[in-house]
Structure formats: C-alpha cells, structure tokens
Structure prediction request, 767 residues.
Amino acid sequence: MSINLSESEEKFRSLFETMHEGFALHEVVYDDTGAATDYRYLDVNPAFERLTGLTRSQVIGRRIREILPTIEEQWVETYARVAATGEPAELESYVPELDRHYRARAYSPERGKFAALFEDITEQKKAQLALQRREEQLRVLFESSNAGIILIDPTGMLTVANDRAGELFGVSVAELIGTQYPDLIHPDQRSIGGGKMRRLIDGKIDHVITERHYIRRDGSDFWGYFSGRRHEDSDGNLISLVGHISDITERKKAEDDLEASRRLLTDIFEFSGMLIAVKNRDGQYEMVNRKWENVTGRSRLEALGRNDEELFPYPVGQQFRQNDLEAMQGDSCLEKEEAIEDENGRLHYAISLKFPLKGRDGSVSGVCVMSTDITERRRIEEERRTFEQQLLHAQKLESLGVLAGGIAHDFNNILMAIIGNADLALMRLNRESPAVENLKRIEQAAARAADLARQMLAYSGKGKFMVENVDLNQLLEDMLHMLEVSISKKAVLRLTPGIPLPSIEVDATQMRQIIMNLVINASEAIGDRSGTIAISTGSMECDQTYLQNVWLDENLAAGLYVTLEISDTGCGMDKETLSKLFDPFFTTKFTGRGLGMAAVLGIVRSHKGVIHVYSEPGVGSSFRILLPASDHSGGGGRSEADCHKDIWLGSGKVLLVDDEESVRRIGSEMLTELGFEVITANDGREAIDIFAENPDVSFVILDLTMPHLDGEQCFRELRTIKPDVQVIMSSGYHEQEVTRKFFGKGLAGFIQKPYKLDVLREAIQKI
Prediction:
C-alpha cells in the first residue's frame, strides 16, 4: 500500500501544532576549530511558545545565547553531542531568564541538527519542595513525646532510669545508672541553671522546669525538656529528685526552621515581583509589600488602615472595592484585569488574583490580592498587533504590486503594437491623407495608456525613471503657481520651506505627481468651506523606533531623512478609511479615478521612503513623506542628447527575441524599415538555437521577461557562444531598473516598451 506523503505531512503538522510538549528544531553552531559554541532555532511549535512565553518570531533564526545569555554550558555540550553522535539525551535545567524548570529529551534527525522535546516541570519542582517542607513540619508536629525518667540522689548521681532515658542518652539503663547528672549536661550549659537544682535539693523550691542541652557518651547531643520534683520521705527529707526528660531536639530544630521559614516568607512577600496586599472585610489595608509601594507610589504607612476609595481616585478605588467584595463572596480565586493609577496619574495595568481569607470557623476575615504588572506586556502586544497589521497590509500591497507590474508588462506589449503600427503608418501615408489625423489620435491615446502603465509600474515599486539630485524646496517653488490655480478658491496654500535642506535622489516628475495628488486631495477634503493647505519641508534624524510607526516599515536604515509634509484643515478620515487609504482604486469620490494614493505609495516605496499619516474626522489630515537624504551635495538632472532626426539606415542581420507575436511582428517591420534583415525567436531557448546557427547576426534585441528562459539567462548564454555579442535589452520597466541587473556585464543598450521607430533608430545608432 502506497503512503500518501501529503496526508502524512498534514498529520505530522497537525501533531506538531497540537502536541502538549514543547518542540524545537535546532542546528549546532561551530567555531573555526569545529568546536560547538552555540545552537540556532530552526522551528518551534505552539506548545514551545506557551511553555516558554517566547514567540516564534523572537527565536527563529536566532542563537540560544542571544535569547538566554545565562544558558548553562552543559546544554550546548549535551545537544552538540546528540547532533554529532545521534545518541539521544535527557536533561533537566533551570532557566533564570524564564524562571522555569524544564525536562528535555533530545535526538538528532540528521548530523549537525537536533530536536528537543521538553516539558515544564516548574510546578512539579515546587510541589516537591512544598512536600519536603510539609514532611518536616509533620515530623516536628507528630514526633513522639515519650519522656525519659530518672532519679537523682542528693549527691547528683543517677540511681534509677527507664528505657526511654537510656534511649535518649544512647546507652543501656545499667550504663546510665551511677552517672553524675551534671556529666550528662552539655559543657555549654553546665554553668547555667545550677542554682535552680541547688535550691530544689535544699527544698527552697519544690519543682523546676527547664530546657537542657544534653550530651551522649558517643559525643552526640540532644535537647531535653526537664521537669524535676522533690521525692521526700515522710519526714520531708529528700530521698531523690524525680526528673522527666522529653526529647525536644526536633522541637528546637523546628523552631529554628520555623524562624528561617518566617524570614523566608517575609522575604518572599517583601521582594516578590507581584503586588501583594491584605485587606480586612471593610477594605482597609493590613499588609502591603514593597512592589505595591513602588508601583502605586504610596508608602505602607500611608496605606495601612485606609481603604481604596481613600487612596485612589474615582473610579479606580471604587472598582477595586467592587472586585474585592466579589472575591470575598466566592469560594475560589477571582481573576480580574485592573488599572492601577500611581501617585503621578500614570496607569499601570495588572492581572489581579483575589481570594478570600477565612478563619477556622469558615468566616471571611478579608481578602488577599496578588497582582502582576502587565503594563509592559500590553505595550509589547500592542506593538505586535501593529506590526501584524503592517505586515498584512504589506503582503496585500506586494501581491497587488506583482499583479500591477505583470499587467503593465503585458499592457506595454499591446501598446508596442499600437504605437509601432501607428508610427509606421504615419511614415508611409501621404501627409495630406485624411487618415493622418486619426493615426495621430491613436498615438495620443496610446501615450495616455502608456502613462497609466507607468503608474502601475510605480505602484509595483519599479517606477523610478529619471533619478537626479533634487532640491525639494526649489521643486516646490517651481510648482507653486500651478498648485495655487489647481486648488479651491476658498483654500489658502501656505509653503514653509525648511532651510537648509539636503538634496534627495528622486525622479522629479514622480515627485511632482505626488505633490499634485496630495494637494488636490487636500483641496477636495476642504470642499466649499474655507480652509488651509500647509506644505512644509525639513530634515530629521530618524531612529528605528520612529521608522516603525509608519506605513509599511520595510526595515529602513536609520539616518538623515528629508521630510515633505502636506496637511489640511478638511474633513479628515476615520479609521476604516485610513485602513483602505492605499488600496488600489479605493476612493471616497466618484469612481474611475485611477490608482491614486496607491501610486503615491508605490512611488515613495520605490525611492526607499515611507509615509506617516495622521487624520481625524472633522479636524483634517496630514501626510508626512520621509525620503533618504542624498550623499551628494550637488544637484542637476541627467542631460539627454537631442534625438538624432536625420534619416539613417542600417544593414545586416538582426535577431529579435520576444514572447509576444504582436511585438515580434511590429518590431520586424520597424527593423526592416531601417534596412535590416530580421530573424525572430519567441523565447530564450529558441533564440540560443537560432543564434548558434547564424554567427553573422550583427546584434540582438532581447526581451527581458519571457517564459522558459528569460532575458537575463538568455543574455548569459549568448555571451557564452559569442563573448562580444551586441545585445539591446527591451522591457516595459525603465532603463535604471534593467541596467542595474546588467551593470558591468557588457549590455550594449536598452529600449523601453512601447517604443517608436525613431527611438529604435537612436538605440541602434548608439551601438
């Protein structure tokens, strides 16, 4: 019977996700000498996160010493041995950073790696300790209290003793009789208590009760509770002293242990990481620990004898009292999340465990409150939720960006056929033909379609066209008049340039598109009311903390950024609108407005920048764009040579490679018009075969994106066949995006789709 691998993997994954034991897969890290120094997490299951409190994102790819710096060396040594020999191992250890005990079993799925199955035995360890303490207390409480009985004559000699006395002193009764009583007392007490015994012998007192430290013949000692009375004859003469000795060694030890336990419990109470408080039935504080004082900012002297309503403002104190009453009315522990306001008005969030304090008769005398401060945990969870939202948004936009880029690529191929055919038709038609005007309109419409394709490329993050050092202040000054005539007559435009301002490396045309888009949006947000549109520039040093609070944080480097802020006093946006702000084709206006803010975001992302958005309904909106400052102080764009318009014809054989038949057809016509003999191939593999059979090919026009073998792979194969082959790369992406991939590899030229005949002529002339 064949095994369904997919089903097995699914069952394994289900087991992996639902198992109660923590599971972690690691690889051992070795130094240059081959010695194991660390190990790195490769995968963990949900039980790992639950048992350790560490999330998957915190550990995957990181070394154990980065996460648990005080890790015991035996962990690394044991696990390295498992990974090297394949022999399983088991160990227990305490992790100080997590304050937990774990029992782990390790095995090696392959050399250099090991998997660890572990369980949390902290509670088991605590239970063992509690059991040990309980056994000590039971031994003290229930130890036998049988007394040894001795008779001492007036000279201090033992004349009678029972078996228990012999047992106490570690000798037989016969050996004990005849011993001087003072010789049984430990040397550290022989000078203490003698006066009482003398007075008892002299008859000045009739009994004595004391605790004595005794020594046995073998040198061991014990504590005894001695009760002595006079034994007299009928005339009142002393016959002997009757002594009862009860072994209280365990009681003395218990008292010492109890004192140590009392000190321990006091220390636990005082130095606990939890806020601990004891209140009576009326809500008055009877005990608080140091953590309670530190978090609330109130001293115990201030708290004792007062209630929550007196110590905390409304409604915090009232809520505490209500929760306490609920706990005292129940029989079990009550868990509540509470907000604690300190003396400075800052709120601390805590998980409080409240349980009633009961007397022997079962009556409730008060409540004990043990609270864990989770303020920092809440902050971290909030940051995690924000990060997850940003990640989801980034994944959505990335997917749509890939879609937009693909559509733009195919769209450019279609436009190539439209623009190329219109261009050739205009060349071949008589200038007086009535069809000339129609062809020109086709060209104009195709040009507008090409602009839309460029917007889609901008959204996909691959739309940087003409990058140059730009003075943002100068660009705004040049646009000011155009912006003023583009906005509502009731809106006032204010420009506040930051001086001095570092230059930025951007595409000026795209920056104008961003500014115009945001200013027009601000004007429409103001509508028919009077309002202000403020444009300001500046620069700021941004650290990682600030860069995390932006749209789509993409691990940008901290450093100097130039800021462009456009704000308005318009209607503002609610949270739902903000969440969809950068979705393609989303709009609060009429339909059919294009990519809009999605294109703005794509342009900013393509320039390694970020956007910080703040908006509040009825108040207005503010868009702050941060772009990395340029390393170059000078400005000035890249000059473009004037198009050579003289009629020029070439000769020779050309290989045109493109997976679109329409592109091959119009490209062939253009090349033929320029005097070349054209051979075509519909993908990279076919191009390699044709090129090998035609060594006289003058140059190759190669499409970048093709199935089977793309342009980059095909280019390498062509260079292998003929190292000096001349290749012009063709793509819907801009030259910078393409030439970056081929920098230093000998690419002869580039032509962007869709192109016209004169652009093709110029690209060929350059080689």
Residues 281 and 759 are 91 Å apart (CA to CA). Residues 147-254 form a domain with the Beta-Lactamase fold (CATH 3.30.450.20).
